Amino acid sequence: MSGKTSEDSPILQMAKTAGAIKGAVKTGKAIAGLSKGAAAGPYGMAAAGLWESRHLVAKVITVMIALFLLPVMFILMLPSLIFGSKGLNEVPANVLNDNTVIMSNISEVEMGIEAILREKHDALLKQIEKAAANLGSNCDYSITDDFSDCIIYESALIISQFCASQADYQEVNLAKLEQILRAGTDGIFSYTVDITSHEETDPDTGEKETYYHYEYIVQYAGDGYFADHVFHLTEEQAETATLYASNLHLFLFDTVYNVEINPDLIPGETGNAAVDMALTKLGTPYSQDLRNQEGYFDCSSFTYWVYKQLGVSLLYEGSNTAAAQGRYIAENHLAIAYEDLAPGDLIFYSFEVNNRYLNISHIAIYAGDGYVVDASSSKKKVVYRPIYSINNIVLCGRPYASP
Q1: Which of 86, 240, 320, 388 is the most buried (most CB within 10 A)?
Q2: What 3-state class would DSSP assign to 329?
Q3: Phi, psi at residue 366, to the nearest 5°?
Q4: Would 325 be classed as within a structural domain?
Q5: Domain of 74, in residue numbers
Protein backbone atom coordinates (compact mmCIF):
# COMPACT_ATOMS: atom_id res chain seq x y z
CA MET A 1 0.00 0.00 0.00
CA SER A 2 2.99 2.30 -0.49
CA GLY A 3 2.05 5.73 -1.75
CA LYS A 4 -1.44 5.38 -0.28
CA THR A 5 -2.71 7.62 2.48
CA SER A 6 -4.97 6.48 5.27
CA GLU A 7 -7.80 8.30 3.51
CA ASP A 8 -7.34 5.99 0.52
CA SER A 9 -7.34 2.78 2.55
CA PRO A 10 -9.78 0.00 1.66
CA ILE A 11 -11.24 0.24 5.16
CA LEU A 12 -12.14 3.90 4.79
CA GLN A 13 -13.48 3.44 1.27
CA MET A 14 -15.65 0.57 2.49
CA ALA A 15 -16.93 2.72 5.32
CA LYS A 16 -17.77 5.62 3.02
CA THR A 17 -19.77 3.46 0.65
CA ALA A 18 -21.29 0.92 3.02
CA GLY A 19 -24.68 2.59 2.92
CA ALA A 20 -24.85 2.02 -0.82
CA ILE A 21 -24.96 -1.73 -0.35
CA LYS A 22 -26.97 -2.08 2.85
CA GLY A 23 -29.56 -4.07 0.91
CA ALA A 24 -27.06 -6.91 0.59
CA VAL A 25 -27.65 -8.14 4.10
CA LYS A 26 -31.12 -9.69 4.13
CA THR A 27 -30.44 -12.74 6.23
CA GLY A 28 -27.88 -14.02 8.68
CA LYS A 29 -26.48 -16.15 5.86
CA ALA A 30 -24.83 -13.06 4.44
CA ILE A 31 -22.17 -13.14 7.12
CA ALA A 32 -22.10 -16.87 7.75
CA GLY A 33 -18.82 -18.02 9.19
CA LEU A 34 -17.48 -14.61 10.19
CA SER A 35 -17.36 -15.64 13.82
CA LYS A 36 -14.80 -18.30 12.89
CA GLY A 37 -12.20 -15.65 12.08
CA ALA A 38 -11.42 -13.10 9.39
CA ALA A 39 -10.34 -14.36 6.00
CA ALA A 40 -6.84 -13.90 4.65
CA GLY A 41 -5.99 -11.19 2.18
CA PRO A 42 -7.26 -7.61 2.07
CA TYR A 43 -10.43 -8.41 3.94
CA GLY A 44 -8.40 -9.96 6.73
CA MET A 45 -6.55 -6.66 6.88
CA ALA A 46 -9.81 -4.73 6.84
CA ALA A 47 -11.25 -6.88 9.61
CA ALA A 48 -8.10 -6.29 11.64
CA GLY A 49 -8.51 -2.58 11.08
CA LEU A 50 -12.05 -2.74 12.35
CA TRP A 51 -10.85 -4.61 15.42
CA GLU A 52 -8.16 -2.05 16.10
CA SER A 53 -10.83 0.64 15.88
CA ARG A 54 -13.29 -1.32 18.01
CA HIS A 55 -13.62 1.44 20.60
CA LEU A 56 -14.70 3.89 17.92
CA VAL A 57 -16.99 1.30 16.36
CA ALA A 58 -18.58 0.64 19.74
CA LYS A 59 -19.59 4.28 20.00
CA VAL A 60 -21.56 4.26 16.78
CA ILE A 61 -22.70 0.65 16.56
CA THR A 62 -26.09 1.25 18.16
CA VAL A 63 -27.13 3.74 15.49
CA MET A 64 -25.11 2.49 12.51
CA ILE A 65 -25.18 -1.30 12.68
CA ALA A 66 -27.79 -1.79 9.96
CA LEU A 67 -26.27 0.82 7.65
CA PHE A 68 -22.59 0.37 8.31
CA LEU A 69 -21.20 -2.60 10.16
CA LEU A 70 -23.11 -5.47 8.57
CA PRO A 71 -22.61 -4.30 4.97
CA VAL A 72 -18.91 -3.81 5.65
CA MET A 73 -18.62 -7.24 7.21
CA PHE A 74 -20.47 -8.65 4.23
CA ILE A 75 -17.94 -7.07 1.87
CA LEU A 76 -15.15 -8.58 3.96
CA MET A 77 -16.46 -11.98 2.94
CA LEU A 78 -16.50 -11.34 -0.81
CA PRO A 79 -13.51 -12.41 -2.96
CA SER A 80 -11.45 -9.29 -3.64
CA LEU A 81 -10.79 -10.11 -7.30
CA ILE A 82 -14.31 -9.01 -8.22
CA PHE A 83 -13.48 -5.44 -7.23
CA GLY A 84 -10.57 -5.05 -9.65
CA SER A 85 -8.75 -7.43 -11.99
CA LYS A 86 -5.46 -5.56 -11.49
CA GLY A 87 -5.57 -5.80 -7.71
CA LEU A 88 -6.94 -3.72 -4.86
CA ASN A 89 -4.40 -0.94 -5.38
CA GLU A 90 -5.97 -0.31 -8.79
CA VAL A 91 -9.64 -0.59 -7.80
CA PRO A 92 -11.86 2.05 -9.47
CA ALA A 93 -13.14 4.68 -7.05
CA ASN A 94 -16.78 3.94 -7.88
CA VAL A 95 -16.60 0.15 -7.56
CA LEU A 96 -18.85 -0.05 -4.48
CA ASN A 97 -21.38 2.42 -5.86
CA ASP A 98 -21.74 0.83 -9.28
CA ASN A 99 -22.50 -2.86 -9.58
CA THR A 100 -21.82 -2.75 -13.31
CA VAL A 101 -18.14 -2.29 -12.47
CA ILE A 102 -18.14 -5.48 -10.43
CA MET A 103 -20.01 -7.35 -13.17
CA SER A 104 -17.49 -6.10 -15.74
CA ASN A 105 -14.65 -7.31 -13.53
CA ILE A 106 -16.26 -10.73 -13.14
CA SER A 107 -16.80 -10.93 -16.90
CA GLU A 108 -13.13 -10.09 -17.54
CA VAL A 109 -12.00 -12.77 -15.11
CA GLU A 110 -14.37 -15.34 -16.64
CA MET A 111 -13.01 -14.63 -20.10
CA GLY A 112 -9.52 -15.25 -18.77
CA ILE A 113 -10.54 -18.54 -17.16
CA GLU A 114 -12.44 -19.62 -20.27
CA ALA A 115 -9.48 -18.86 -22.55
CA ILE A 116 -7.10 -21.00 -20.48
CA LEU A 117 -9.52 -23.92 -20.20
CA ARG A 118 -10.07 -23.72 -23.96
CA GLU A 119 -6.29 -23.83 -24.48
CA LYS A 120 -6.03 -26.99 -22.38
CA HIS A 121 -9.01 -28.53 -24.18
CA ASP A 122 -7.55 -27.83 -27.62
CA ALA A 123 -4.15 -29.15 -26.56
CA LEU A 124 -5.79 -32.45 -25.60
CA LEU A 125 -7.47 -32.66 -29.01
CA LYS A 126 -4.05 -32.35 -30.62
CA GLN A 127 -2.84 -35.25 -28.44
CA ILE A 128 -5.78 -37.35 -29.60
CA GLU A 129 -5.17 -36.51 -33.25
CA LYS A 130 -1.49 -37.40 -32.87
CA ALA A 131 -2.40 -40.74 -31.32
CA ALA A 132 -4.99 -41.41 -34.04
CA ALA A 133 -2.47 -40.66 -36.77
CA ASN A 134 -0.41 -43.66 -35.64
CA LEU A 135 -3.29 -46.14 -35.94
CA GLY A 136 -3.02 -48.95 -38.47
CA SER A 137 -4.62 -48.92 -41.89
CA ASN A 138 -7.40 -51.18 -40.66
CA CYS A 139 -8.40 -48.67 -38.00
CA ASP A 140 -10.58 -45.60 -37.94
CA TYR A 141 -11.54 -43.28 -35.12
CA SER A 142 -14.03 -40.76 -33.81
CA ILE A 143 -13.95 -38.19 -31.02
CA THR A 144 -16.77 -37.78 -28.50
CA ASP A 145 -16.35 -34.32 -27.07
CA ASP A 146 -19.06 -32.81 -24.88
CA PHE A 147 -16.93 -29.71 -24.37
CA SER A 148 -16.38 -28.57 -27.93
CA ASP A 149 -19.07 -25.88 -27.67
CA CYS A 150 -19.15 -25.06 -23.97
CA ILE A 151 -16.95 -25.73 -20.95
CA ILE A 152 -19.11 -25.41 -17.84
CA TYR A 153 -17.23 -24.29 -14.76
CA GLU A 154 -18.07 -22.56 -11.50
CA SER A 155 -16.41 -19.17 -11.92
CA ALA A 156 -17.47 -17.91 -8.47
CA LEU A 157 -15.80 -20.91 -6.85
CA ILE A 158 -12.59 -20.56 -8.89
CA ILE A 159 -12.39 -16.85 -8.07
CA SER A 160 -13.05 -17.58 -4.40
CA GLN A 161 -10.50 -20.39 -4.18
CA PHE A 162 -7.86 -18.22 -5.79
CA CYS A 163 -8.48 -15.36 -3.36
CA ALA A 164 -8.43 -17.73 -0.39
CA SER A 165 -5.11 -19.21 -1.54
CA GLN A 166 -3.25 -15.90 -1.53
CA ALA A 167 -1.72 -14.75 1.76
CA ASP A 168 -0.66 -11.41 0.24
CA TYR A 169 -3.66 -9.42 -0.96
CA GLN A 170 -1.43 -7.54 -3.42
CA GLU A 171 -1.03 -10.82 -5.31
CA VAL A 172 -4.79 -11.06 -5.90
CA ASN A 173 -5.08 -10.03 -9.52
CA LEU A 174 -6.10 -11.55 -12.82
CA ALA A 175 -2.54 -11.93 -14.10
CA LYS A 176 -1.60 -14.06 -11.07
CA LEU A 177 -4.77 -16.15 -11.41
CA GLU A 178 -4.04 -16.82 -15.09
CA GLN A 179 -0.45 -17.77 -14.23
CA ILE A 180 -1.62 -20.31 -11.64
CA LEU A 181 -4.35 -21.72 -13.88
CA ARG A 182 -2.03 -22.11 -16.86
CA ALA A 183 0.56 -23.92 -14.73
CA GLY A 184 -1.85 -26.14 -12.83
CA THR A 185 -4.50 -27.31 -15.29
CA ASP A 186 -2.55 -29.55 -17.67
CA GLY A 187 -4.49 -32.54 -16.37
CA ILE A 188 -7.93 -31.03 -16.18
CA PHE A 189 -8.85 -32.56 -19.55
CA SER A 190 -8.11 -36.20 -20.31
CA TYR A 191 -9.45 -38.91 -22.56
CA THR A 192 -10.33 -42.58 -22.57
CA VAL A 193 -10.42 -44.92 -25.56
CA ASP A 194 -13.22 -47.34 -26.35
CA ILE A 195 -12.14 -49.90 -28.99
CA THR A 196 -14.65 -51.95 -30.95
CA SER A 197 -14.07 -54.31 -33.85
CA HIS A 198 -15.89 -55.98 -36.71
CA GLU A 199 -14.97 -58.39 -39.47
CA GLU A 200 -15.37 -57.88 -43.19
CA THR A 201 -14.98 -60.49 -45.93
CA ASP A 202 -13.13 -59.64 -49.10
CA PRO A 203 -15.59 -60.44 -51.93
CA ASP A 204 -12.76 -61.49 -54.26
CA THR A 205 -10.58 -63.61 -52.00
CA GLY A 206 -13.07 -64.63 -49.36
CA GLU A 207 -10.55 -63.71 -46.68
CA LYS A 208 -11.75 -62.12 -43.48
CA GLU A 209 -10.13 -59.06 -42.03
CA THR A 210 -10.73 -57.41 -38.68
CA TYR A 211 -11.28 -53.68 -38.56
CA TYR A 212 -11.07 -51.56 -35.43
CA HIS A 213 -12.81 -48.38 -34.39
CA TYR A 214 -11.25 -46.17 -31.75
CA GLU A 215 -13.62 -43.83 -29.95
CA TYR A 216 -11.71 -41.14 -28.07
CA ILE A 217 -13.87 -39.75 -25.27
CA VAL A 218 -12.90 -36.35 -23.87
CA GLN A 219 -13.29 -36.02 -20.12
CA TYR A 220 -13.26 -32.94 -17.89
CA ALA A 221 -12.18 -33.26 -14.26
CA GLY A 222 -14.70 -30.64 -13.09
CA ASP A 223 -14.71 -28.06 -10.34
CA GLY A 224 -13.32 -30.45 -7.74
CA TYR A 225 -9.98 -30.40 -9.56
CA PHE A 226 -9.11 -26.80 -8.70
CA ALA A 227 -8.93 -26.96 -4.89
CA ASP A 228 -6.42 -29.84 -4.76
CA HIS A 229 -4.49 -29.66 -8.03
CA VAL A 230 -4.46 -25.97 -8.92
CA PHE A 231 -4.66 -23.88 -5.74
CA HIS A 232 -3.53 -26.60 -3.27
CA LEU A 233 -5.86 -25.30 -0.59
CA THR A 234 -5.54 -26.15 3.06
CA GLU A 235 -8.67 -27.19 4.91
CA GLU A 236 -9.01 -23.69 6.34
CA GLN A 237 -8.50 -22.04 2.94
CA ALA A 238 -11.09 -24.35 1.39
CA GLU A 239 -13.60 -23.35 4.06
CA THR A 240 -12.86 -19.67 3.44
CA ALA A 241 -13.29 -20.19 -0.30
CA THR A 242 -16.67 -21.82 0.25
CA LEU A 243 -17.79 -18.84 2.31
CA TYR A 244 -16.47 -16.44 -0.32
CA ALA A 245 -18.42 -18.27 -3.06
CA SER A 246 -21.63 -18.50 -1.02
CA ASN A 247 -21.58 -14.81 -0.23
CA LEU A 248 -20.72 -13.87 -3.80
CA HIS A 249 -23.81 -15.74 -4.98
CA LEU A 250 -25.85 -14.05 -2.27
CA PHE A 251 -24.47 -10.65 -3.31
CA LEU A 252 -25.37 -11.24 -6.96
CA PHE A 253 -28.78 -12.65 -6.08
CA ASP A 254 -29.89 -10.13 -3.45
CA THR A 255 -27.96 -6.98 -4.29
CA VAL A 256 -27.35 -6.84 -8.02
CA TYR A 257 -30.62 -8.43 -9.08
CA ASN A 258 -32.74 -7.82 -5.96
CA VAL A 259 -34.95 -10.87 -6.36
CA GLU A 260 -37.60 -11.16 -3.66
CA ILE A 261 -38.59 -14.61 -2.40
CA ASN A 262 -42.34 -15.19 -2.04
CA PRO A 263 -42.91 -17.44 1.00
CA ASP A 264 -46.66 -17.68 0.40
CA LEU A 265 -46.62 -19.86 -2.75
CA ILE A 266 -48.18 -23.27 -2.12
CA PRO A 267 -47.16 -26.40 -4.11
CA GLY A 268 -49.97 -27.94 -6.13
CA GLU A 269 -50.96 -30.78 -8.44
CA THR A 270 -49.99 -28.72 -11.48
CA GLY A 271 -46.37 -29.18 -10.45
CA ASN A 272 -46.75 -32.96 -10.35
CA ALA A 273 -48.45 -32.85 -13.76
CA ALA A 274 -45.51 -30.84 -15.11
CA VAL A 275 -43.08 -33.54 -13.98
CA ASP A 276 -45.23 -36.28 -15.54
CA MET A 277 -45.37 -34.32 -18.79
CA ALA A 278 -41.62 -33.70 -18.77
CA LEU A 279 -40.80 -37.38 -18.24
CA THR A 280 -42.69 -38.31 -21.42
CA LYS A 281 -39.99 -36.49 -23.41
CA LEU A 282 -36.93 -38.26 -22.04
CA GLY A 283 -34.42 -38.90 -24.82
CA THR A 284 -35.72 -36.15 -27.10
CA PRO A 285 -32.70 -34.71 -28.98
CA TYR A 286 -31.19 -31.42 -27.86
CA SER A 287 -30.73 -28.67 -30.43
CA GLN A 288 -30.60 -24.91 -30.07
CA ASP A 289 -30.90 -24.42 -33.82
CA LEU A 290 -34.03 -26.60 -34.02
CA ARG A 291 -35.40 -25.69 -30.59
CA ASN A 292 -38.80 -24.61 -31.88
CA GLN A 293 -39.32 -27.54 -34.24
CA GLU A 294 -41.20 -30.69 -33.27
CA GLY A 295 -38.91 -33.44 -32.03
CA TYR A 296 -36.20 -31.15 -30.65
CA PHE A 297 -35.68 -29.10 -27.51
CA ASP A 298 -33.15 -26.86 -25.88
CA CYS A 299 -33.42 -26.21 -22.15
CA SER A 300 -35.87 -23.32 -22.32
CA SER A 301 -38.06 -24.52 -25.17
CA PHE A 302 -38.46 -27.74 -23.16
CA THR A 303 -39.72 -26.01 -20.00
CA TYR A 304 -41.86 -23.66 -22.07
CA TRP A 305 -43.46 -26.62 -23.91
CA VAL A 306 -44.15 -28.51 -20.67
CA TYR A 307 -45.99 -25.65 -19.06
CA LYS A 308 -47.74 -24.64 -22.25
CA GLN A 309 -49.42 -28.07 -22.22
CA LEU A 310 -50.74 -27.19 -18.76
CA GLY A 311 -52.09 -23.80 -19.78
CA VAL A 312 -49.23 -21.74 -18.33
CA SER A 313 -47.36 -19.39 -20.67
CA LEU A 314 -43.80 -18.58 -19.64
CA LEU A 315 -43.33 -15.92 -22.28
CA TYR A 316 -41.81 -12.62 -21.19
CA GLU A 317 -42.04 -9.81 -23.74
CA GLY A 318 -42.54 -12.39 -26.47
CA SER A 319 -39.48 -14.48 -25.55
CA ASN A 320 -39.27 -17.95 -24.02
CA THR A 321 -35.50 -18.09 -23.39
CA ALA A 322 -34.26 -19.25 -19.99
CA ALA A 323 -33.45 -15.66 -19.01
CA ALA A 324 -36.90 -14.49 -20.14
CA GLN A 325 -38.58 -17.22 -18.11
CA GLY A 326 -36.48 -16.21 -15.11
CA ARG A 327 -37.64 -12.63 -15.50
CA TYR A 328 -41.23 -13.86 -15.78
CA ILE A 329 -40.78 -15.66 -12.46
CA ALA A 330 -39.16 -12.71 -10.68
CA GLU A 331 -41.48 -9.99 -11.93
CA ASN A 332 -44.62 -12.01 -11.22
CA HIS A 333 -43.51 -12.66 -7.61
CA LEU A 334 -43.19 -16.40 -8.22
CA ALA A 335 -39.66 -16.83 -6.85
CA ILE A 336 -39.15 -19.39 -4.09
CA ALA A 337 -36.25 -20.43 -1.89
CA TYR A 338 -34.11 -23.40 -2.95
CA GLU A 339 -35.00 -25.09 0.34
CA ASP A 340 -38.70 -24.98 -0.63
CA LEU A 341 -38.39 -26.74 -4.00
CA ALA A 342 -41.35 -28.96 -4.89
CA PRO A 343 -42.02 -31.09 -8.00
CA GLY A 344 -42.62 -28.95 -11.07
CA ASP A 345 -40.66 -25.94 -9.83
CA LEU A 346 -38.16 -24.33 -12.20
CA ILE A 347 -34.46 -24.10 -11.37
CA PHE A 348 -32.40 -21.42 -13.12
CA TYR A 349 -28.63 -21.68 -13.47
CA SER A 350 -25.91 -19.18 -14.31
CA PHE A 351 -22.68 -20.60 -15.70
CA GLU A 352 -21.37 -17.40 -17.24
CA VAL A 353 -21.74 -13.64 -17.37
CA ASN A 354 -23.87 -13.31 -20.51
CA ASN A 355 -25.54 -9.96 -19.77
CA ARG A 356 -28.96 -11.61 -19.72
CA TYR A 357 -31.31 -11.42 -16.76
CA LEU A 358 -29.53 -12.87 -13.70
CA ASN A 359 -26.92 -14.10 -16.22
CA ILE A 360 -29.18 -17.15 -16.59
CA SER A 361 -27.82 -19.71 -19.03
CA HIS A 362 -29.75 -22.89 -18.20
CA ILE A 363 -33.09 -24.03 -16.78
CA ALA A 364 -34.37 -27.34 -15.38
CA ILE A 365 -37.56 -28.74 -13.89
CA TYR A 366 -37.33 -30.08 -10.36
CA ALA A 367 -38.75 -33.62 -10.32
CA GLY A 368 -38.63 -34.26 -6.57
CA ASP A 369 -36.37 -36.43 -4.41
CA GLY A 370 -33.28 -34.49 -5.46
CA TYR A 371 -33.72 -35.04 -9.23
CA VAL A 372 -34.32 -32.74 -12.18
CA VAL A 373 -35.54 -33.17 -15.75
CA ASP A 374 -33.87 -30.95 -18.31
CA ALA A 375 -32.78 -30.70 -21.93
CA SER A 376 -29.02 -31.07 -21.53
CA SER A 377 -26.55 -29.62 -24.02
CA SER A 378 -23.77 -31.94 -22.78
CA LYS A 379 -25.94 -35.07 -22.86
CA LYS A 380 -27.50 -33.97 -26.18
CA LYS A 381 -30.99 -34.97 -25.04
CA VAL A 382 -33.68 -34.60 -22.36
CA VAL A 383 -32.51 -36.42 -19.25
CA TYR A 384 -33.59 -37.30 -15.71
CA ARG A 385 -30.68 -36.92 -13.31
CA PRO A 386 -29.68 -35.87 -9.78
CA ILE A 387 -29.67 -32.14 -9.16
CA TYR A 388 -26.26 -30.68 -9.93
CA SER A 389 -24.12 -27.50 -9.72
CA ILE A 390 -26.07 -26.17 -6.75
CA ASN A 391 -23.68 -23.22 -6.39
CA ASN A 392 -24.69 -22.08 -9.88
CA ILE A 393 -28.41 -21.84 -9.06
CA VAL A 394 -29.47 -18.20 -9.11
CA LEU A 395 -33.27 -18.51 -9.02
CA CYS A 396 -36.04 -21.00 -8.29
CA GLY A 397 -39.68 -20.44 -9.19
CA ARG A 398 -43.18 -21.91 -9.06
CA PRO A 399 -44.70 -20.80 -12.39
CA TYR A 400 -48.22 -22.11 -11.83
CA ALA A 401 -48.80 -20.55 -8.41
CA SER A 402 -51.01 -17.56 -7.67
CA PRO A 403 -48.90 -14.79 -6.09
Answers
A1: 240
A2: helix
A3: -75, 130
A4: yes
A5: 6-80
Nearest to 365 by CA among 292, 290, 287, 309: 309
Looking at the fold, whether 144 and 45 belong to one and the same domain comes out as: no
Burial profile 289-298: b = 16 or more Cβ within 10 angstroms, e = fewer: eebeeeebbb
Q: Is residue 87 part of a domain?
A: no
Q: Does residue 103 sit in the same domain as residue 55?
A: no
pLDDT in tens, 339-395: 999 999 999 998 876 768 888 999 999 999 999 999 999 889 999 999 998 878 889
The reply to whether 224 and 141 lie within a common domain is: yes
DSSP 6-67: GGGSHHHHHHHHGGGGGGG--SGGGGTTGGG-PPSSHHHHHHHHHHHTHHHHHHHHHHHIII
Same-domain status, 63 and 157:
no
Q: What is the mean pLDDT of residues 95-112?
A: 82
Taking residue 221's Cβ as centre, other Cβ atoms within 10 Å add up to 14
- Classify residue 187: in a domain, yes or no: yes
pTM beyond 0.85, yes or no: no
* Distance, CA of 284 to chain centre: 26
Query: pLDDT tens digit string along 318-327?
Result: 889 999 999 9
Identify whether residues 224 and 320 lie together within a single domain.
no
**pLDDT for the residue numbered 32:** 35
Pairing of strands 208-220, 139-144: parallel
Q: How many residues does the chain have?
A: 403
What b-and-e string marks burial along 237-274, b requiring 16 or more CB atoms within 10 Å of the CB?
Answer: bbbbbbbbbbbbbbbbbbbebebebbeebebeebbebb
Q: Answer yes or no: is 363 within a domain.
A: yes
pLDDT tens per residue, range 121-177? 999 999 999 999 999 999 999 999 888 877 777 888 899 999 999 988 788 999 999
Domain boundary among 233, 265, 293: 233
E strands, 67-171, are 139-144
Q: How confident is the model at residue 42 (pLDDT cuts 50, 70, 90)?
A: very low
Question: How many separate domains does the chain show?
Answer: 3
SS3 state of residue 193: strand
Domain containing 289 — which CATH number? 3.90.1720.10
105/70 same-domain check: no
Residues 283 and 367 in one domain: yes
* Shared domain check, 73 and 38: yes
